[in-house]
Records
---
Amino acid sequence: MAPLGEKLARTCLYTAGILTDTSQVDRVYASIKAGIIDGRYPPGAPLSEPALASAHGMSRTPVREGMSRLWQEGYLDRVQGRGYFVGRVTVQSINDTFDVRRLLEGAAAARAAELATPGEVSLLRELAELPTRDYREGEVANARFHLAIAEAARNTLATELIERCLAQIDRFLSPGASSSQFQTGASQAHLRIAGAIARRDPAAARALMEDHLDCGSSRMKAALLRGEIAGVGVR
């Protein structure tokens, strides 16, 4: 889901005739982004425009535009004269992502406690208790829970920004961190958050969400110190 400002900017460029084939750009953008998030393109790996164009059956122009979008979003690094490389996971990027999530999702949980319908509360409880068999299922269930809260808060922009943050967290973990340590206790934390929303207690919902994210941030930093997250940069 692209940010609203990006959507507006791309619409203007398309109308002006600067971008001529948005469907191809969107397709290659989504494909490369998915490859970065699921670890098929590891941190630091070079990405070749000709190879990607051939693999997707298109010219280099939409590939270049798609890669430019990913560079602007922080998924790629660009080196003058050498092209694009998959962005490295950095301590700063992890801190920044969790800081933004804490602000956005704490506010979203508080707002959801005021606005969520009984059906939305029921969905939150269902998602919190959803059984998962592996890392990927756990990540999907986690994302669905957090996005369901954002949607219950009735803020489309916040939902889109939270979705971007969740994708970044998935990218941080994909290179090799053990998923079990990040999923431990998540269901109980989600149930407590859903309970506060059901009780119409904005302060408790915010505090529980912030505590949940602080716990996730601490565990990820501990994984960094143990060398369990690959492709970590210095900046």
---
Amino acid sequence: MLDQIIDSGKKATRDGFGAGLHAIGQQNDEVVALCADLIGSLKMQAFIKEFPERFFQVGIAEANMMGIAAGLATAGKIPYTGTFANFSTGRVYDQIRQSIAYSHKNVKVCASHAGLTLGEDGATHQILEDMGMMRMLPGFTVINPCDYNQTKAATIAIAEHYGPVYLRFGRPSWPNFTAEDQKFEIGKALLMSEGSDVSVFATGHMVWNAVEAAKIVAAEGISVELINIHTIKPLDEEAILESALKTKAVVTAEEHQRNGGLGDAVAQVLSRKAPTPQEYIAVNDSFGESGKPVELLSKYGLGVDDIVAAIRNVIKRK
């Protein structure tokens, strides 16, 4: 099964968002888009060209963008807001909490350039706390797809889900390995490969690193069950428990702080229902820095070799 996971050609997940936004715009006349002066970075050009009357350029005024989106949702529209993940969350958390989450507005907060792989723009832009912040908001759905195809599918799917959504994706070109014609199901984990020795729950860009790590340890005779957790909230507890009870060893991998993200979400489930040895692959209480995306992942403990080491370590703890 691992051998069937093949990179069909690198594409940025933000390009998947742009393609998905254009596609859902063609399917649903209630979809509108807003941007905080980052049209090119968010790949919104195709939507704007075809539906100029359904696009709102807010400028560098992210808090105002969230308020406008809440108003549009009140009027029955389905607004997709677009800016960097740092500006989509940290800069506007109060507006999201008060104007969107509290009244359960149907707003899709779409956030590009998330995590360390933002790269050269450095620590001030590399938000690593966003999934934790957003999953703590009552009623918010949090989605972190792994590649171009999955991001496109997720962007289309969230229009059919009523309620606030945080959709997180990235800047760099990245392996594209999930099915082009996939149907994205919110809250349903995706089994990438079956295994018996260890469960690896990965999200976002880290799914590909987990694929490569699983292939390395397979040569050592270690059987990895790899599960793509694209939805951080609502979490697919059933899939997590079924796998953890089978393998009795867990690794979580995310491009996020250890605190508050996928690892903690999985640990909460396991601690309540199936205590299991767990290793975290995540940033350890640190800000990032400027650098090449893959080099930063390696420096901060999120590289393929780090996942390999975590797999070996957790198996020893069984």
---
Amino acid sequence: MNLMNHDLELAKLKLTENALSLAIVKNGKVIFETKKPGISGFLQAIEKLDKNLVATSVADKIVGVAAAMLCVYAGVSSVFAQTISTEGIRALEDNNIEYLFEKKVSNILNRSKNDVCPFEKMAISSGNAEDAYVKLKSLARQMMSNSTKTGC
């Protein structure tokens, strides 16, 4: 088993054992973990760790196109998702990021389950991973200041 798979296994284990929403592992060490729901935890990891996220393994509860684009932006090398969307898979495959998942869905919905998650819409409309990161960060900030629970 190469280190990449070992890191991914460790990230997956931490995610499930500790009921996390996100676990990031590099070289056999957990470098970030959170229970924050939605995309905000990943945005926080990017702000805190920046280039240290290159060549990491990420385990995330939900990977839609928004999370996948953040993985691309951060230089992540492998991803485990408990739930992944079709568009999320496409974004990972287009960028040669290895992935494993438990459940595949057509879309990631908002918390009310009545529409596609606003972060997904934003990511799908983005031109590239950098564009997606800037737009998602802005949307997250806007939602936090409105303290609306319309996230995903």
